[in-house]
């Protein structure tokens, strides 16, 4: 039986995507856990729900960025560790927030499902979408400049 590393480049790409996807899901779970913990603590401290939500989301976003940058999409040469990468990461986080809010509002408003079922659908859609954008745009390997003679 051949080793995974001996397979064709196409299959190697699929295995790499699977590895990154699994790591991304793990990081998302950790960030969501922090988000919900901060949210609950902030509510217990009598912070307004909207402010508690923003605080929790922000904490989760920071943890997600650090773990994504160093574990999910490692960059050994350090080309992507920059303010621009962080800004793109935050923008994709806001995309996820908009998707989540929009889906929950649409699904519950149309009476298609309850709040918790809508949240589960929104988490699934948002996670897959944001992972794809972050993989292709935020943490993509920098393109090498083509030489003038090429």
CA-atom Rg in angstroms: 19 Å
SSE arrangement, N to C: HHHH
The major β-sheet equals: none
Count of discrete alpha- or pi-helical segments spanning 4 or more residues? 4
**DSSP helix fraction:** over 70%
What value does the average pLDDT take? 79
Low-confidence stretches: 145-150
| End-to-end CA span | 42 Å
Q: What percent strand?
A: under 5%
What is the strand tally? 0
Shape: globular
Classify the secondary structure makeup into a structural class: mainly alpha
* Number of spatially distinct domains: 2
List the helices and strands and how they pair.
Elements: H1 9-44, H2 49-72, H3 83-109, H4 115-138
Helix pairs in contact: 1-2, 3-4
Explain how this protein is built.
This protein has 150 residues and is mainly α. The protein is globular. The longest helix is centred in the N-terminal third of the chain and has 36 residues, at 9-44. The protein has two domains: 1-74, no CATH class; 77-142, no CATH class. Helix 1 (9-44) packs antiparallel against helix 2 (49-72) and helix 3 runs antiparallel to helix 4 (115-138). It is 74% helix and 0% strand. The protein contains four helices and no strands. The protein has helices at residues 9-44, 49-72, 83-109, 115-138. Residues 145-150 have low confidence and may be disordered.
């Amino acid at each position: 039986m051949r080793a995974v590393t001996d397979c064709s480049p196409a299959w190697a790409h699929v295995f790499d995507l699977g590895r990154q996807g699994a790591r991304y899901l793990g990081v998302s779970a950790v960030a969501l856990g922090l988000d919900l913990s901060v949210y609950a603590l902030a509510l217990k401290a009598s912070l307004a729900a909207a402010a508690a939500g923003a605080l929790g989301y922000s904490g989760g976003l920071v943890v997600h960025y650090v773990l994504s940058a160093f574990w999910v999409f490692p960059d050994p040469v350090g080309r992507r560790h920059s303010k621009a990468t962080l800004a793109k990461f935050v923008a994709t986080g806001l995309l996820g927030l908009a998707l989540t809010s929009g889906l929950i509002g649409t699904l519950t408003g149309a009476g298609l499902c309850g709040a918790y079922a809508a949240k589960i659908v929104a988490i699934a859609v948002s996670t897959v979408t944001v992972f794809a954008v972050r993989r292709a745009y935020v943490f993509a390997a920098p393109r090498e400049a083509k030489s003038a003679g090429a």
